[in-house]
Amino acid sequence: MTDIDRALSVLDTARRRTLHLTDCLDEGELAAQHSALMSPLVWDLAHIGNQEDIWLVRAAAGRPGVRPDLDGVYDAFQHSRASRTELPLLRPDQARRYIAEVRDQALQLLGDAPTDNGDPLLTDRFVLGMIAQHEQQHDETMLATHQLRQGPAVLHAPSPPPAPADVTRLPREVLIPGGPFAMGTSTDPWALDNERPAHRVHVPAFYLDTAPVTNEAYQAFIADGGYADPRWWTREGWRHRCQTELEAPLFWTRDGASSGSSSSGGWLRRRFGVVEPVPAHEPVVHVCWYEADAYARWAGRRLPTEAEWEKAARHDPAADRSRRYPWGDAEPGPEHANLGQRHLRPAPAGSYPAGQSPHGVRQLIGDVWEWTSSDFTPYPGFTAFPYKEYSDVFFGPEYKVLRGGAFGVDAVACRGTFRNWDYPIRRQIFSGFRTARDARPGEGA
Ligand code: AVJ
Ligand code: FE
Questions:
Q1: Cα(87)–Cα(85) distance, rounded to whole angstroms?
Q2: How far apart are CA 58 and CA 26, in angstroms?
Q3: pLDDT tens digits, one per residue of 4-46
Q4: pTM
Q5: In terms of domains, do 330 and 423 share one?
Q6: Contact 131, 408 (CB under 8 A)
């Protein structure tokens, strides 16, 4: 469904979330820098409107724009996140008025614009989908800023995740048989440039975890001295571990009152302003690529490649075609995946049986972003569209790919082809992982 109602609805959902994430803090907190890794929230707020001004009001509708004079201040490439508090930013009330004015003009101009006049921005209302995804991406970034912020809780989850599934008969891993599959897409109307074009990739047989790595499993790595043993780490990973004195996921502290034998494993975590025991059966979150990679080596396994991840998430072996999601082509519902900031935490590992892939892999979509072993590189035949600064300028070995989205990601910005990327040291993002291993010759050939 890419008709006008869907476009209006995803734009409205994004805006309600943006206001929800910013209306709960006062002017001082919105203007403050809660972490050098993040922008002040009031920068994200106006940047969302500025991108909409640029792409909907100007590029798509051909109008002069609401505030072209603001482009410099809200250009992510001109100013590092850490320096954005020094800019002449709009105050929160001014930013709210600006983004509302942009939205009004955009909807008036584009609400019933033709989609068949040959402008690729308007085809299938791509540019509306792109701007809704952009706003939701910043809503996830703002959620990460909330998580980094000190002080009493202001965000509260609308509902808890579903009760844990019965996982007693869920195998720990499954075999994904070898063979080609269609990676990426040339037909998904709102897929972004780096997801295109579709191309066939041969993936040798491999085994993949049916669920993300849990806190309990990760604690066994810590307890076994995994952070003190360079054997498990790449050279750069070990250097980074030593320099920054990593010893547990971000936001974890040792629980002085616990013996370590309790279900928390002796660890506490801070989650959106509340300190709580680390839940044993939840997927681990807030680990960097180096930590994920070291854990996998310690476990005698490895991270999946990006192609392995996508094949497991999309390939339907019965029809030999790639689907949009592990469960098929239907839009994600609450029975499929933990998305949309509904629960503000991952669901227990093994949840969402209705969202599993044909081979029985669960939670590929939602819960936690999953680190892959792959660098962020363009697919064969890639062309930047509509702007180089979305993907093109980031391709290269310094970024690792993450897949599948997290509890903070909205469905509009999440699908089996969606590619995220970050530096291997980053862990303020909602990042976890699952592990893989090669199949032996003859297995699944
Ligand atoms: C796709 C999450 C890596 O936040 O840097 C937002 C998304 N691009 N505005 C980022 C994005 C431009 C991007 N990531
Ligand atoms: Fe942006």
A1: 6
A2: 32
A3: 899 999 999 999 999 999 999 999 999 999 999 999 999 999 9
A4: 0.97
A5: yes
A6: no
Let me know if 152 is exposed, middle or buried by CB neighbors in 10 A (0-12, 13-18, 19+).
exposed
Tell me if 207 sits within 8 A of 437, measured CB to CB: yes
- Which range marks the domain in which residue 313 is found? 165-213+299-438
CA 23/CA 95 separation, integer angstroms: 12
- State the residue for tokens 């034998």: 261
Please indicate, yes or no, whether residues 188 and 109 belong to a single structural domain of this protein: no
Q: Which residue, by CA, sits nearest to atom 1 of ligand 1?
A: 420
DSSP state of 231: G
Torsion angles phi and psi, residue 105, rounded to 5 = -65, -40
Residues 58 and 181 in one domain: no
Token pair of 146 as six digits: 């909330």
Does residue 83 lie in a domain region? yes
Mutation pick for ligand 1 pocket among 137, 371, 419 (CB with most ligand atoms within 8 Å): 137
Output the residue whose Cα is nearest ligand 1's atom 10: 137
Cβ 391 under 6 angstroms from ligand 1: no
Helix 4-23 and helix 126-148, axial crossing angle in degrees, nearest 10: 20
Does ligand 1 come within 6 angstroms of the Cβ of 428?
A: no
Give the percent of the chain with pLDDT over 70. Answer: 99
57 secondary structure, DSSP code: I
137 touches ligand 1 (CB under 6 Å): yes
CA 109, 115, 116, 119 dihedral sign is positive
